[in-house]
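One chain shown below:
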Amino acid sequence: MKNISNISLSGKRVLIRVDFNVPLDEYFKITDDSRIQAALPTIKKVLADGGKAIIMSHLGRPKNGFEERFSLKHTVKHLSDLLATPVSFSSDCVGENTIADVENMENGDVLVLENLRFYKEEKSGDIGFAKQLANLGDVYVNDAFGTAHRAHASTAIIADYFPDNKYFGLLLSNEISSLEKALDNPERPFTAIIGGAKITGKIDVITSLFDKVDNLIIGGGMAYTFAKAMGGSIGNSLVEDEKVALAKTLITDAKEKGVQLLLPSDSVNADDFNNDADIQSSAITNVQNGFMGLDIGSESIAHFSNAILDSKTIIWNGPMGVFEMKNFANGTKKIGEAICEATKNGAFSLVGGGDSVAAVKQFGFADKVSYISTGGGAMLEYLEGKELPAVVAIQD
């Protein structure tokens, strides 16, 4: 893979597309710096070589130009602390002032550019905007897996201006290698765990996985649509009525393809979406009216855990329940524990998707799985078998 490991960046202006789309509190303090931490090896490689690291990223979803709460200046001090070196900030990402800021850099310097998405041309993939960015660097490095599925100016279009000097960063290279390891030649049995609220958005993933996995575990809110498809009563549980017929089809498709589709058999229910609500357990196909399912039950946990412990390759995307509430976190936690145990026993485990990653960190599992992906949407599209524009742009 064409990454920066084996090249020298000495004296080069290295334009690095990172994913610093980190959460900030009301005082603009970073509440989770995982994405910044993930980019450090690539930035450190540039500095160790004696290059100039020019950092570009997006942050949040600004509507129309500059918004103080989405300024990347809020990441500069923290990045400086992590690198133990001064980090400068450019108040724009293109234009004369930015060009001057880059020209003033010396080897070993780090400069963070302002939020790319303050320009609508970034998301539209504008060629002129991409060229302005490209003019700032001698080498282009993409290390932003979280945006690899977007054909934006800074992730895909810009690579055209570096035909011989475009590379994967160390993070993006690891992301692709880990996904390839899981999907292209998995050690079997291969189990995928798909959770979250809705089938919508994950239909293509589920369908694609039927051609790859031995077991597919379904959890989270989407399980109640499957329960209804099986003729069950699901009370006030989340359901996509328009997807019930599809759920029936997916159940049939799994059988035809020889995939063991594991659906929850029992459910932990509440009479309100609240940690302090009245709680009862039931079969997932027999949720009492007035109650909603918010987690999988002990029988489902045992069944799923057995399949996971027998697996040699595991992919996890999406929680089993509303793990943010203590009383409905058990399913997600126990499935996470099973994945950690399987990993300890030699399985390869890959966790991706915002909620799954948050759960892994919440329960202290981060160092007990094989790989944690930094990109939810990009990971899902890769699992679907889609080409990721930013990856193709480097490979071309």
Remarks:
- The mean pLDDT is 96.
- The radius of gyration is 23 Å.
- The chain has two domains: 4-175, 186-364.
